[in-house]
């Protein structure tokens, strides 16, 4: 097990409905020393990429993305969620459906902060169905920029997002991939990775 998998086993809580609670260290209270380790691991995994910008989505991706940006010495931009946007041409917009919350959001990034020459590393805390990620990929495409990589803290490997994104050819690195979990026993099975 790697450092993140170990932490998930120690402090993560498996809830009914295949929900993994990690709010004591990842997305409510945040262990920034752990985030630093994650940032260094992403730096290692994407060492062959020339990355000049980190892109994430509010809310819980922001903390991790900031530390990752610090490791890469590049700025970080977060996509904003809003129910309805006055589309005046100054922003890139993507529609993102949340299965967990059963709602649709528009996510926006100002055209000021993404340009065709940008080489982007997308960062997020969770990958489940991949809707948020597909929205971010769409925004990078609208800017004419390039997705150099995608770094995820926790991928739920039994949901479809990871498979879809990898099939599209994107370099996707998840620090922990949960292949199955059991709320009654608290058991978590991780996918073997190199
Ligand atoms: P998707 O973007 O991969 O399609 O995710 P989905 O709609 O299934 O999930 C909606 C939200 O729930 C996302 O956060 C996602 O990160 C989060 N999520 C999904 N599965 C889990 C889980 O097992 N545990 C935890 N803790 N979160 C999970 P969000 O609502 O879009 O953003 P945020 O404001 O929380 O950052
Ligand atoms: Na979340
Ligand atoms: Na998130």
UniProtKB/TrEMBL annotation:
Amino acids binding 5-phospho-alpha-D-ribose 1-diphosphate: 128-132
Subcellular location: Cytoplasm
Matching Gene3D superfamilies: 3.40.50.2020
One GO BP annotation of this record: purine ribonucleoside salvage
Pfam families: Pribosyltran
Catalytic activity: XMP + diphosphate = xanthine + 5-phospho-alpha-D-ribose 1-diphosphate
Keywords: Cytoplasm, Glycosyltransferase, Purine salvage, Transferase
Positions contributing to xanthine binding: 20, 27, 156
Enzyme class: transferase
Chain ranges of the Phosphoribosyltransferase domain: 48-154
Domain of life: Bacteria
GO molecular function (one): xanthine phosphoribosyltransferase activity
UniProt-listed CDD domains: PRTases_typeI
EC numbers: 2.4.2.22
Gene Ontology cellular component list: cytoplasm
Pathway the protein acts in: Purine metabolism; XMP biosynthesis via salvage pathway; XMP from xanthine: step 1/1
Functional note: Converts the preformed base xanthine, a product of nucleic acid breakdown, to xanthosine 5'-monophosphate (XMP), so it can be reused for RNA or DNA synthesis.
NCBIfam families reported for this sequence: PRK09219.1, XPRTase
Family listed: Belongs to the purine/pyrimidine phosphoribosyltransferase family. Xpt subfamily.
Subunit composition and interactions: Homodimer.
Protein name: Xanthine phosphoribosyltransferase
Species per Swiss-Prot/TrEMBL record: Ruminococcus callidus ATCC 27760
